[in-house]
Design a protein that fits this description.
There is one protein chain. With 238 residues, the chain is mainly α. It is built from eleven helices and no strands. The longest helix is centred in the middle third of the chain and has 38 residues, at 122-159.
C-alpha cells in the first residue's frame, strides 16, 4: 500500500535555477556526448568488421584518458573544497572517482579483447562491451547529476561566485595546451549557442588574440557554416 499522500504527489518540485558560473556544465556535456557515442557505436558495429571493432577500441581508450584527466582536475581543485564546505558528499565523490577509474580501465581491456576477438566470438564480446558501456554510462550520469544539481549550487553558496571563477582558472591553468585543444574539440559541438557564446566571449575578452584566433579556427572546423555564422553574430564578428 502506498504511503505517499495526495499532497506529496501533487506538490511541485522546487524550480531549477542556473548557478552563476558552472564548473561542470561544458565538460560534462562533452563527456555525455562521448559516452552516448560509445554506447551507440558498440550497439551498431558489425561484429565481422575488425576495422570497426578496432576503431571502437581506440575511442574507448580515448574516452578513458579524458575521464581520468577530468577526475584528476576535480580531485586537485574541487575535492579540497568539498572536504571543508560539503563534507556530506566528499566521500561519495572520492569513492565514485576511484570506482570509475577501475571500471573505465576494464572497459579499455574489454574493448581491446573485442577488437582482437577470435573467430566466432566477435559478436559475444562486442555485445558484452555494449552492455558494460551502457552500465558504466548509467552510473557516470548519476555521478554527474550529483555534481551539477547538488555540489555546484552548494559550492557557489559556500564560497561565492568569485571564488568559483578562481577554481575554474586554477583548473584551466593546469591543463596543457594540447589537452585543452582536445577538450574544446569535444565540448564545442556538444554545447548550445549560449554556452558557446559565453566560452568564446570569455576568450575574446581575456585571452591573447592568437589564442582566440586559434580557437575560432577550431570552431570553424567543428560546426556547420550556419552555426558558425550565428556564433559570429553573437560575438560581434559578423
Amino acid at each position: 500500500m502506498l504511503s505517499m499522500t495526495i499532497t506529496e504527489i501533487t506538490t511541485a518540485p522546487a524550480r531549477f535555477e542556473l548557478v552563476t558560473f558552472d564548473l561542470y556544465k561544458d565538460i560534462h556535456k562533452a563527456i555525455r556526448a562521448e559516452l552516448f557515442a560509445l554506447v551507440t557505436t558498440a550497439a551498431a558495429t558489425d561484429p565481422s568488421d575488425r576495422g570497426g571493432r578496432c576503431a571502437l577500441a581506440a575511442h574507448v581508450a580515448d574516452v578513458e584518458r579524458m575521464l581520468e584527466s577530468h577526475a584528476e582536475h576535480e580531485d586537485a581543485a574541487i575535492q579540497p573544497l568539498l572536504e571543508i564546505h560539503l563534507p556530506d558528499v566528499r566521500d561519495q565523490v572520492a569513492v565514485d572517482h576511484l570506482s570509475f577509474e577501475g571500471r573505465a580501465q576494464g572497459l579499455v581491456l574489454l574493448a581491446a579483447e573485442a577488437a582482437d576477438a577470435p573467430a566466432g566470438d566477435e559478436r559475444r564480446l562486442l555485445h558484452l562491451l555494449h552492455l558494460d558501456l551502457a552500465s558504466f554510462t548509467s552510473s557516470y550520469l548519476a555521478h554527474q547529476d550529483l555534481e551539477e544539481r547538488v555540489i555546484m549550487p552548494g559550492l557557489e553558496a559556500a564560497i561565492g561566485v568569485e571564488a568559483v571563477v578562481g577554481v575554474h582558472r586554477q583548473i584551466i591553468g593546469s591543463i596543457p595546451p594540447a589537452e585543452m585543444g582536445q577538450s574544446l574539440a569535444l565540448m564545442i559541438p556538444a554545447m548550445n549557442i549560449d554556452d558557446r557564446t559565453e566560452l568564446l566571449g570569455g576568450l575574446q575578452a581575456g585571452a591573447p588574440a592568437e589564442v582566440f584566433d586559434g580557437v575560432w579556427r577550431l570552431v570553424g572546423s567543428l560546426l556547420s557554416p550556419a552555426d558558425v555564422a550565428a556564433l559570429a553574430s553573437r560575438l560581434g564578428l559578423a
